Please model this.
Amino acid sequence: MIELTTPISDDDIAKLNVGDTVEISGYILCGRDAVLPKVLKMIDEGSVDKLGVDLHGQVIFHTAVSPAGVGPTSSNKLEIESSIAPLSAAGIKLHLGKGELHKETIEALDKYNAVYAVIPPVTALLGSKTSEEKVVAFPELGMEALHLIKIDKYPAIIGAAHGRSIYE
Model:
């Protein structure tokens, strides 16, 4: 088991391979199809600093945050998968979700020295490993707002790294 703590460095990413099991700890962002296009717009406009969160070395979990907890949504939804390359270019190092990604997305991850990890849909387990949560932006989206949560040893498997995919 490889332990990762946010922020994640380029050296951390360089050591990861497809199929590695990891445990992620620290503060991570949570967002999915409703909020990610808004974050991309902020990046394009140069206003992403208004989030008050540095994207460099950050993890983004493709999930909503609800009273029932957090669990992965499909990362290959158009709004989510199309955000992976630009978010990686902006500094995100690890995208956390579920499902197979397109070859172009895997190549973009490699280009920006980022990885994708799949996480089992175990909401109850993840709830016990989440100690803090707050809305960072777009509160009008409710559970689909951009959240920052503090986690301890979230389990995941590296699904795409260095131009390769676990689904090949």
Summary: The chain has a mean pLDDT of 93. Residues 78-89 form the longest helix (12 residues).
